[in-house]
Amino acid sequence: MAHKIGIIGFGKIAQDQHLPSIRKNPDFELIAVASQRGLKPDEAKHAFQDYREMLKAVPDLEAVAICTPPQVRHQIARDALLAGKSVLLEKPPAATLSELQDMKLMAQKAGKTLFTTWHAQYNKAVHEAKKALAGWEIKRLQVTWKEDVRHWHPGQQWIWEAGGFGVFDPGINALSIVSFIMPEPVFIKKADLQFPANRDAPIAADIQFSCAHGQGDLNAAFDWRQTGPQTWDIEVETANGLQLKLREGGTKLEIGGKLMVDEPSEEYEGIYACFDTLLNERTSLVDEAPFRLVADAFMIGRRVQVEAFED
């Protein structure tokens, strides 16, 4: 029997990714949507402006996908878990690590599934990269994640507010790949965060990493001001000379200059396949590593003021 699911927050990511993936997956049935703007897809039997009304009025709802901005997810997730619903969290999963830890403990007490989704991890090229790097010492890492915020987040003011993550909203995708494929933990050693004079979240960041075995040439550059072609690349070189490159957000993998994987992204299809398994097994998957790296960057990062930005 298909899992009856609801979506809370029906904005761009829910419409572009969650809804099509649920439609494709016979293991899920979308029965309810909560949207402050009153939006509703045709197949949803129930629509609400207040998610709390949805939780009360649809007793056969098994799970919810929370696709709101991160600043409000903690309370929504708590309410859903207390109502006996399992929870899928769009990334980033919350506003703070403490909120995520609270959700994790609540899910354990309630006996419900909590799933932190890092969509970039669900590409085949990313999994093959992890296999190729297993057991090796990393000599060099260069992450280049540069895109146009006006294209991907038109008019979305919450991303510029404190707690909105700024350039780390896409940057956390890169960090989710790095934390997944690296054969040992990585840490934030230094970070320069560029804040527009009129914004409370960074528009760019330069990061230097360290790893457990010692020092290496490990860096990342994030920027939200790039126009034209977008750049989502991760280059890795091991101590024994293996050179690996993930391109186009983790959909293409090159090893030694040879293209090994080139497949279209099915990230959200992978997310919902995983969620089905978790629900059936009554287990949770809470991956905190990408979120911790972002928190550490803000904790030790140097604030650099740059020119004002208007979108």
UniProtKB/TrEMBL annotation:
User: Pfam families, alphabetically?
Assistant: GFO_IDH_MocA
Which SUPFAM superfamilies does the record associate with it?
A: NAD(P)-binding Rossmann-fold domains
- Domain (Gfo/Idh/MocA-like oxidoreductase N-terminal) spans 4-115
Q: Which GO terms describe its molecular function?
A: nucleotide binding
Signal sequence: where? none
The protein here is known as D-galactose 1-dehydrogenase
Q: What is the lineage of its organism?
A: Bacteria, Pseudomonadati, Pseudomonadota, Alphaproteobacteria, Hyphomicrobiales
Q: Which domain of life is it from?
A: Bacteria
